[in-house]
Amino acid sequence: MIDLSQTAAGLDGYPLLTAQLEALLSGERDFIANAAQFSAFVYHELEGLNWAGFYLVKDDELVLGPFQGKVACVRIAFGRGVCGAAAASRQTQRVEDVHAFAGHIACDSASNSELVVPLLKEGRLIGVLDLDSPRVGRFSEADQRGIEALAEVLLRASDC
Ligand code: SME
Q1: Hey, where are the domains in the chain?
Q2: From CA 122, how far away is CA 104, in angstroms rounded?
Q3: What is d(CA 105, CA 99) in angstroms, rounded to the nearest whole number?
């Protein structure tokens, strides 16, 4: 396991994770299979997460997809919670303290910070990647950039 919070200043563990993920997903184009592998990979390789997974766009709402962590709410309307905000705005939502985010949906009471990345394939919204942490402020700007790069690998590697 790479403890990214402990990496020396100037060193960034994400290029290695990106290369490992590319290798893991190579040879398979099925989006659900690759999203399942992605959620297991990220959940176990990034420290300090209690949930990692996907909500996928179906009939104009978000529906739970592959994930690791405790059971979660199944359907989220666009605009609701952090995931719905990422889907509606098509912008990554990096939330230092979920309790200060109006409308946050508490699936796991252990979650204190959250990063949600919209998944866009050729301008189409496929869904969102959602990472939760029990630690307030777990996700830095560097984490955001690194995790957005990981999400890009999934989109490039998969038919969706
Ligand atoms: N907290 C999210 C809901 C999904 S769970 O965290 C897995 C939200 O506010 O959209």
Answers
A1: 9-157
A2: 29
A3: 10
Q: Which atom of ligand 1 is nearest to the CA of 72?
A: 7
- What is residue 8's DSSP assignment? P
pTM over 0.90: yes
- What's the fold here for domain 9-157? Beta-Lactamase (3.30.450)
| Residue-by-residue pLDDT tens, the chain, 160 positions | 555 444 433 357 999 999 999 999 999 999 999 999 999 999 999 999 999 999 999 999 999 999 999 999 999 999 999 999 999 999 999 999 999 999 999 988 999 999 999 999 999 999 999 999 999 999 999 999 999 999 999 999 999 9
Residue from 51, 63, 105, 115 to probe ligand 1 pocket by mutation (most atoms less than 8 Å from CB): 105
Atom of ligand 1 nearest to the CA of 103: 9
